[in-house]
């Protein structure tokens, strides 16, 4: 008997959830631009006319911004890119980080930061969120908590998209905040919350 569309969708989601794993070892193959676009769109694209996105956001504030360190992506020159959620385009904003710079921010020698074909930086306009939710909790902790939660929701969607593409990824949050801030040079008032390494899984 043919499965209903709902059963089929549910089966597909189940498969992706089972397949999602943190993968830390990558080979040299470049990512296709299509895969990259789908992974970023899963994390943070605008999916309705009123501006709402794939990931939920308290007060629909959307304080997250995605940036991408591109090393090996077909059709994109290596560099530092900003992701535009409305057009779903990557805008080249700078040079790629020099070799070893990302690794030097790691608290645990996470070499996959250097080996990944691309690293998505989940950044947040933290002070904007802290200000927005100060009425709920004046010390700012609530806004900060909401941002962390939203970054997790965004990252999980990218993990599932990576599983759908047959690629490998791992989220890295063990980094020195000051060093990473300095290395990335994100726009003013934007801080990095998480690094999401993506590549073709290495046969081991
Ligand atoms: C908040 C958070 C921070 C993490 N930080 C790191 C990290 O700094 N380096 C790393 O290699 N993995 C990191 N991970 C990945 C976890 O180690 C991984 O999710 C865990 O081992 C479970 O494996 P799985 O993702 O394959 O299910 C982090 C995961 C989370 C949720």
TrEMBL record:
<protein>
    <recommendedName>
        <fullName>Nitroreductase domain-containing protein</fullName>
    </recommendedName>
</protein>
<dbReference type="InterPro" id="IPR029479">
    <property type="entry name" value="Nitroreductase"/>
</dbReference>
<dbReference type="Pfam" id="PF00881">
    <property type="entry name" value="Nitroreductase"/>
</dbReference>
<dbReference type="InterPro" id="IPR000415">
    <property type="entry name" value="Nitroreductase-like"/>
</dbReference>
<dbReference type="GO" id="GO:0016491">
    <property type="term" value="F:oxidoreductase activity"/>
</dbReference>
<dbReference type="InterPro" id="IPR020051">
    <property type="entry name" value="SagB-type_dehydrogenase"/>
</dbReference>
<feature type="domain" description="Nitroreductase">
    <location>
        <begin position="17"/>
        <end position="200"/>
    </location>
</feature>
<dbReference type="InterPro" id="IPR052544">
    <property type="entry name" value="Bacteriocin_Proc_Enz"/>
</dbReference>
């Amino acid at each position: 008997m043919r499965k209903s569309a709902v059963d089929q969708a549910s089966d597909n989601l189940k498969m992706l959830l089972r397949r999602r794993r943190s993968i830390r070892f990558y080979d040299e193959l470049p990512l296709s631009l299509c895969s990259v676009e789908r992974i970023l769109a899963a994390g943070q694209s605008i999916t309705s006319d009123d501006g709402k996105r794939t990931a939920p956001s308290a007060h629909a504030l959307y304080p997250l911004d995605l940036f991408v360190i591109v090393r090996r992506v077909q059709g994109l020159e290596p560099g530092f890119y900003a992701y535009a959620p409305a057009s779903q385009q990557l805008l080249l904003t700078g040079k790629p980080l020099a070799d070893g710079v990302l690794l030097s921010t790691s608290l645990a020698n996470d070499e996959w930061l250097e080996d990944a074909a691309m690293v998505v930086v989940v950044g947040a306009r933290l002070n904007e969120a802290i200000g927005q939710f100060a009425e709920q909790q004046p010390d700012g902790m609530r806004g900060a908590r909401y941002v962390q939660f939203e970054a997790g929701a965004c990252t999980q969607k990218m993990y599932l998209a990576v599983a759908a593409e047959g690629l490998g990824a791992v989220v890295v949050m063990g980094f020195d905040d000051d060093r990473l801030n300095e290395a990335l040079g994100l726009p003013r008032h934007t801080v990095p919350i998480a690094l999401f390494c993506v590549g073709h899984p290495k046969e081991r």
